[in-house]
Structure formats: C-alpha cells, structure tokens
What does this fold into?
Amino acid sequence: MIRSIICKLPSKLTGQMAVNVLARSMASQAPQKMEDYFKGKKFIVTGSCAGMGEKITERLVDLGSFVYAVVEKEEGAAKALPNTKQIFCDVSNWEQTYKKMYDIGPVHGLVNNAGVAVIEPFFDVTEHGWDKTLNINARALVRISQAVAKNMIDAGIKGSIVNISSTISTRAIPDHTTYCASKGAVNQITRTMAIELGKYGIRTNNVNPTVVLTRMGKIAWSDPEKSGPIMRRIPLGRFAETDDIANAVIFMLSDYSTMVNGTALVVDGGFLAG
It folds into this structure.
C-alpha cells in the first residue's frame, strides 16, 4: 500500500524525499578521522632508510601502523624503529625482489619510494647510468608491485599503492635525461596498474614532488645557479620538505582517497602551473 502511494507521488517530490533520507543518514554517521584508518594496518615502504622514505615510515608508525622497511644493504643500515621490520633487498635483482616482497605476506599498502638519480647530460649518458636508473626507478617498481598486489588479491585486501614520481617526469630539466625518462615511465606504469588492478579494489597513484630538501637534496641543489631557475618557477618560493611528501602519501594511502585511482598528486608549490 505504502509503495503504491509513493509511486503516485510527483517525481520531484520523491526525489527530494530520497535526498532528505540520504542527508539524515549521512548526518547520523560521524566521519572517521583519516588517521584512524592506519591503526593496526601493515605497509611496505621501499627506500626507507633516508629522506622521504624515512619520513613516510616514521609517520606510518606514529599513526599506529606496522611497516616493512625495505633497505638495500644490511651493512651500515640504521637501527629499525619500533613497529617496523627491515627487509634487506637489492631491488634491482628481478627474482630476489619478487620472492622477498611476496614472502612478507599481505599488506594494506605499498609505497614505491626507492630510487636513484644518475646526473648525466644527454651526450654523456652512459650504459651503466641508464641501466641503473631505469632498473631501480621503473623496473623494480613493477616487480615489487607484482608481488605485493598478488598478496593483496589473494587476501581480498582493497589496498593502495603509491609510486613516487617527480615533476620532471613531465617537464624536463638539463642533465637529467635518464632520471626524466625513468619518472616518465613511472607515470605510465601507474596508469596501467590503476586500470588492471582497479577491478580488484586496489588503487594505484603517483605522488610527484618538486625538489625535496632531504639531506642529499640540500647538497645536490645548494648551488644557486642550478637551483635558481627552478625556484623562480615555484610561486610559493620554496622547495619541498620531506613532511610535505609524507602528507601527500598518507592521504593517498588512506580511505579519504578511495575514489582516487590512476592519477598524480603534484607537490610542487605551483611549479607546473606556469
């Protein structure tokens, strides 16, 4: 009887009734804080021993997560933080990388942060520099993600994968031929992963920073002649700090970005806007 009465109501009125019901339902549900998502979750962070990777690891631990911190070599590695486990792995090794990442088991998120920058002008690009840069920045990202995504799918986890790219994946600068090429590859790998993994509920996105003032970044960009042209293109007038990148990564890993897939969150102070 009630159903027949509703069917006879004008469509405009029934539409408004539906909106009101939805609004009341949403109002009765207190939104979860983004930080709450991370409590008790497990994540993998590659290149976690310094710079952006170290900061991302620290932030995840502070939010109540357990982190598998992927480090290249045991020799000289910093002591593991509480609620972390160091995984020693040369990510340029195709077979070893897959096995070590797969053996970790299911996790809720992955941050592909490991990377190298071999600075060579175009005419001075070497085979070694090209192979090392592409192998670590792009090929290793694929191999790591294959193992991690397989575990997510098998466990029914709708996880998040964040790949660290760069603004110079789309706007080239001198002397960075191989680095620009590798980060351009990361952009396309991310898009492809988003399409293929999306059907399993796994999201894949980039975070694309400008120059980041890690310890090595401060050294590499200390020359005003080198840093000046880029700085002048940044409306906010500064380079990024590691916290700026960690903030973006945390958002992309969280359930505050559940409809964000196959895109890039640019953290550049407006560098690409002009």
Notes: Residues 237 and 249 are 22 Å apart (CA to CA).
